[in-house]
Design goal:
Layout (H helix, E strand, L loop, with lengths): L3 H8 L1 H8 L7 H11 L6 E4 L5 H8 L4 E5 L2 H10 L5 E3 L12 E7 L11 H10 E12 L5 E3 L6 E3 L2 H10 L2 E9 L7 E8 L9
Parallel strand pairs: 1-2, 1-4, 2-3, 4-5
Antiparallel strand pairs: 5-9, 6-7, 8-9
Length: about 210
């Protein structure tokens, strides 16, 4: 079921696809980070919040068993038409239709920025559920010194500090491996965190 954020993106899907629907539109640093992260694991990868599917296809072209999930029908339609050899599913990041412990990696590239701080744990726990022991996640987000809402062009979104999002990941059963912050003149700071499913008694109940 599509929520208010999904409906907002649905109304502006064509505009979004034109601006961001190609890997070539990404910052070179972001592309390098995603590619090097993807080269560190084996097994299926989910592009969670795949949008129009460009990153899913990019990962598939690099030899990964990649699949995309998004709640916006227009994005999934475009992805299926543009990349017919790659599987895409209409669905929620809070309830992925994937068996527990069956996935090697989850890419969540700016797909959690609209989750409120009180609800962001839901998709993070779902990522933890579907990942194999030692499986990895890469999260792209908008970075700031404190967690706060701001007026995103499509729907209200949130800035996260690396430490605050790292704490949410820990609570969901992950350990942070590395973090990155990229600042560009005239733009909001961009953050990325690589984490993996933690092992040990502290996370046995995840």
């Amino acid at each position: 079921m599509i929520d208010d954020v999904g409906l907002a993106y649905s109304r502006r899907a064509a505009e979004y696809i034109e601006l961001f629907g190609e890997v070539g539109a990404a910052h070179p640093t972001d592309r390098y980070l995603i590619e090097t992260w993807a080269d560190t694991f084996e097994g299926p990868v989910i592009d969670a919040g795949c949008g129009p599917g460009h990153w899913t296809d990019h990962l598939a072209r690099r030899g990964l068993d990649a699949r995309g999930v998004d709640q916006v029908p227009e994005f999934i339609d475009r992805a299926r038409n543009a990349y017919p050899g790659v599987p895409f599913t209409l669905g929620s990041l809070n309830a992925l239709e994937v068996e527990s412990g069956s996935v090697g990696g989850v890419l969540s590239w700016y797909s959690l920025i609209h989750h409120e701080p009180s609800t962001i744990g839901m998709p993070l726990r779902e990522f933890s559920r579907v990942l194999r022991p030692g499986g990895g996640v890469l999260i792209g987000f908008l970075e700031g010194p404190v967690v706060e809402e701001y007026a995103h062009a499509v729907a209200p979104a949130y800035l996260w500090s690396v430490d605050a999002l790292g704490e949410e990941l820990w609570a969901a059963g992950f350990e942070v491996i590395e973090s990155h912050v990229r600042k560009s003149a005239g733009e909001r700071s961009q953050g990325a965190i690589i984490a993996r499913v933690a092992t040990g008694a502290a996370h046995a109940d995840r």
